[in-house]
Amino acid sequence: MIVPVILSGGSGTRLWPLSRELHPKQFLPLVNSKSLLQDTVERLNGLPSAAAPIIVCNQEHRFLVAEQLRERGLRSSATILEPVGRNTAPAAAVAALHAMREGDDPVLLLLPSDHVVTDSHLFRSAVSAAVPQAMEGRLITFGVRPTGPETGYGYIRAGASLGAANVSLVERFVEKPDRETAESYVASGEYVWNSGMFLFRASVYLSELQTHAPDILDACRASLDEAAVDLEFIRLGEDAFGACRSDSIDYAVFEKTKAAAVVTLEAGWSDVGSWAALWDVGTHSADGNVARGDVVVHNVRNSYLHSEDRLIAAVGLENMVVVETADAVLIANKDSVQDVKTLVTKLKDSGRSEGQTHRKVYRPWGAYDSVDTAERFQVKHITVKPGATLSLQMHHHRAEHWIVVRGTARVTRGEENFLITENQSTYIPLGTKHRLENPGTIPLEIIEVQSGSYLGEDDIVRFEDVYGRQDKA
């Protein structure tokens, strides 16, 4: 049996402003109508003997993961929540330990949630070809045949063939090279890109981790022993996992083990780690442009233009990236997009929210869009999914006015409980316990006007919450 393990802990800061810390790139539909996470899970359809995946994600993203799986009718066998990010070696360890708890020793297929693979059939064929080697105790990594001298990827030098098609011993791993070195690697035909995808038996990986990084294994085992079930999620022990050192699976195991093998993969892979990479995998016009959303151009060539909310009108551009969202616009030369990460760091250092979250924020019950904000007031457009319920809560510093523009709302206000419908409104005084519910079968939409001395999201005291969220005072 193959148990896929989907790693969904990345932040994708190089794809800002679309990708934000609280809504990173794996949850975005960057190439087609599906998110990268949804594409990753659906890519497994048709893989022989594949079970439902284990998903390892940041605890802040748990409801995004659950909602995106629900949208596509997908399911996981377990969703494991990391209290802090500790890179891929610990994430793989907790997945392997969990997979073996029922006494099985499955083959694990470790996949990042934010990569693009355009040919799913070839991907599944490469995995199937590698399974016999994994069953025999090999730790398999998938190496992508280079299409050019890319300096943003690590490389793997393949050694002697293991007899099976495209399966070889790993001779050595190489860090991201400079341009001249990358050109020599590609010209030699002996190197492949390190894709970050792996295949191995759970017990074999844990044994190698015990040999090469026993402290990581001990911390992961302790964090799983201390784990708590939270709704459909497995919440790792915070102290034990927080004490684990951060390390990648490459450094912790694969560069040290003698059991590593590489399978050459030619399936249209990209880690879409920058806007230039996203331009590479996009559909190009006759002028070499990739345009998504409301875009009108004249005399524009070899550029990437992405509109979320407003018209982008561009004239006389070449080799440029223009990305528009509701609260930010990125303009960059395509050759400089690796520096977007530096911009995000500057935004966070200056305390700006645009580095962390979008104007529209998703919650397990729906979403809210901060339409307007000024001193002592804020206006939000709130959407509540059918049957969903917000927490019973109160605020110390703000009052709220609710106006229903679509659907029906059930309101709890102090000891009162009543319905309001379209074009009706109500008022929630400061310090009053309240709750909003959608008892209907269509989305509930309301306009909320907040007024008060402090309007931050941390001014919430929760008394009851069906989603198990903690109190915030």
Provide a descriptive summary of the structure in words.
The longest helix has 16 residues, at 120-135. This protein has a six-stranded antiparallel beta sheet, with no helix packed on it. It has a five-stranded mixed β-barrel with strand order 6-9-7-8-12. A hairpin with a 5-residue loop joins strand 7 and strand 8. It is an alpha/beta fold and 473 residues long.
Write down the overall mean pLDDT.
94
Cα end-to-end separation: 47 Å
Cα radius of gyration in angstroms: 24 Å
Strand content: 25-35%
What's the structural blueprint in terms of helices and strands?
Elements: E1 2-8, H1 36-42, E2 54-58, H2 62-71, E3 78-82, H3 88-99, E4 107-112, E5 116-117, H4 120-135, E6 139-144, E7 155-161, E8 167-174, H5 179-188, E9 191-201, H6 202-212, H7 214-225, E10 228-230, E11 233-235, H8 238-242, H9 249-254, E12 260-265, E13 269-270, H10 275-281, E14 290-292, E15 295-298, E16 304-307, E17 312-315, E18 320-324, E19 329-333, H11 340-349, E20 360-363, E21 366-374, E22 377-384, E23 392-394, E24 398-406, E25 408-413, E26 416-421, E27 425-428, E28 434-437, E29 444-452, E30 461-464
Parallel strand pairs: 1-2, 1-4, 2-3, 3-11, 6-12, 14-16, 15-17, 16-18
Antiparallel strand pairs: 4-9, 5-13, 6-9, 7-8, 7-9, 8-12, 10-11, 18-19, 20-21, 21-22, 22-29, 23-30, 24-27, 24-29, 25-26, 25-28
Helix pairs in contact: 3-6, 3-7, 6-7
